[in-house]
Amino acid sequence: MATYTVGDLIRHKELQELVAVGPTATVLEAVEAMSGREVGAILIRGARGVVEGIFTERDVLRRIVAEQRDAKTTRVADVMSRNVRYVTPDTAVEQALQLMVTHRYRHLLVQDGTEVRGLISIRDIMYSFIVPEMAMAPEGRHGHMRSRAEEAVRLMQAVKSR
To answer: What is the pLDDT of residues 101-120, one digit of tens each?
Structure first.
């Protein structure tokens, strides 16, 4: 498990296409893109595809609903999270999880130099711990899932205690 990288995680994701909108898109357009692809975050890409920010479900709650802004007229650039933190594809999944827990991120950009490789969620990481790309344990799927879930809980506790 310790050698499983963020790059490995991205290769096994069901949704490979990154969902993005431009900074002039309205919040409503961004939410429609998120809802249409069933994702909790999208990238905001400016000129030449450069990532200018990320817009998440949490941004919708805190910066739109709580502030009573109009999703039809508010530009996503006005409410997105800027200075997007990223990891490289060779980052260990455990390191990515530690970063996410420490900074309370639910989504993390994966970038190799200037090339965007993907966007991972804490759900992706937890899924990789519980349902890894490996043969089933002798005790069957139920026992396998339980043991992987217990291992994930232990890992989360270890990360949280650091």
So the answer is: 999 999 999 999 989 999 99
Q: Of all helices (H) and strands (E), which one includes residue 61?
A: none
Tokens of 37: 């692809």
**What number of other Cβ atoms are within 10 A of residue 161's Cβ?**
6
Q: Which CATH superfamily is 6-161 part of?
A: CBS-domain (3.10.580.10)
**pLDDT for the residue numbered 133:** 57
Q: 45: buried, middle or exposed (CB in 10 Å: 19+, 13-18, 0-12)?
A: middle
Tokens of 14: 């069901």
**Whether the Cβ atoms of residue 53 and residue 82 lie closer than 8 Å to each other:** yes
Give the helix/strand (H/E) hosting 116. strand 115-121
